Every structure is written in structure tokens, then in C-alpha cells.
Amino acid sequence: MKLTSVQLKMVMALILAVLFFAVTYSYLPKSSELPEMTVLEKKARFKTLIVPAINDVHAELMVQYQSVLLSIKSASDTNEIETLKLEYEVSSNEALLMALKPHPKSVAIAQAAIESGWATSRFFNDAYNIFGVWSFNEDEPRISALKQRGDKTIWLRKYPSVKASVSDYYHTLGTSDAFEQFRQLKMQTEDPFALVKKLNRYSEKGAEYGQELTSIIKFNHFDDYD
Fold it and tell me: What is the spatial distance between Cα 95 and Cα 93, in angstroms, rounded to a whole number?
């Protein structure tokens, strides 16, 4: 069947339209959104991605803490102790031990769940930033938040791995002046429900933040990891 000139023009126009949309679509940014998941699937994925790293970092920190504690008691390895004091910006052995001792894993897991939206947030997917840690250093890897505070851009640190994010989180709670009471209390108790009450300065929610952490730990039995 021979096509008329009008029909040929229509066919050519259709072909060009298809080619145009195919080429245009190839340059569109691909969505990084996760597929729809049930609550159980989301939590199972979160545990697979986050809990092993928290277990590893906690175990490594505990070994270091025990080693430093032994060195202090025996008055040995003083060079290592002085180096660690510089790293953690402390002057006494007591303050160093408070900085080094890792807090219960249940607290870290609950905070990871809140701050990363159960490992679904853009900050986690694009930067492995599990705990919502801000960046104030323009020379370090980081990504911008979608919202601004006034006319200022909010930046968050970008990490090379989940484990690096967990390590930095423990270091932050071990060094920041905002969590001095938290560090003091963890030397007296391993009770996560007591400790989360000292994390009110981690979030703008204040005391409500500790209550939220308590609920998450209890409901999900995160204290079983301690």
C-alpha cells in the first residue's frame, strides 16, 4: 500500500516525536527514591545496613577503652594516652576515659533510626550521613540540605561508608561540650533509658527527643543489642 504525501509527513512527524522524547528522557535526572516498602521491610533493611556497623564500631571502641584503662592503671603507654588526649581535646585521664567509653548500642541504633528515617533519607542515600551531622568546613566532603536556615545553606557531612558515619557519631558524642553530662552518666550506668534523657541537646525537640528515643528502643527491643 503506497502512502500519500500527507500520510508520509504524519509518519515522519511521529518518528521524530518519538526520537525527541527518547533523547530528552535520557538526560533527565534519574530518581534516587527507594521503591515502596512495608514498615517491616523498611526496618529489616535498616537493620541489615546499620546494625553491623554499629556492632563493629562499638566493639573496636570498647577494646580501645579497655586498653587505655589498663594503661592508665599501670602507668604505661603514656605517649599513646597523651596523643589521645590531644585528639579528644581533654586534659585528664578521667575525661579521656569518658570520651572513649562507647555508650550502649541501643541508643546509637535508635538515633540512627530517627535521624536517617530508617535509612531512607536523602542524606543517608547520597552521603551515608546516618545521624544528621552538620558540616561547617567547606573543605570537607558534604552535601547541602534542601531547606535553608534564614538565608544560610545548611550543609551535612558526606561519608565514604556507613562505618565511617558511625565512627564520627561516636567521636562527636565523645568530644562535644553539649554532651558532657551524657558522658558523665555513661560512666555510672549502661541504662539506655536513663542516658537518652541527656541527649536533649542533640535535637531541636529538646526533652521530647529523649522520649522519642525511649519509645523506639522499647517498641523495637533495641536494648536486646546491648
Answer: 5
pLDDT, tens digit, 9 for 90 and up, residues 51-109: 999 999 999 999 999 999 999 999 887 899 999 999 999 999 999 999 999 999 999 99
The answer to whether residue 5 sits within a structural domain is no
- Determine the structural domain holding residue 69 and report its residue range: 39-225
d(Cα 193, Cα 220) in Å, to the nearest integer? Answer: 14
Structural domain includes residue 31: no
Show the cell assigned to 160. 565514604
What CATH number is attached to the domain comprising 205? Answer: 1.10.530.10
User: Is residue 214 in a domain?
Assistant: yes
Total domains in the fold of the chain? 1
Write the CA distances from 191 to 12, 73, 86, 104, 106, integer angstroms.
73, 26, 29, 8, 10
In a domain, 12, yes or no: no
- Helix, strand, coil content of the chain in percent (nearest 5): 65, 5, 30
Is the separation of the CB atoms in 143 and 175 below 8 Å?
A: no
Of the candidates 116, 133, 221, the one whose C-alpha atom is nearest the C-alpha of residue 176 is 133
**Predicted TM-score (pTM) of this structure:** 0.83
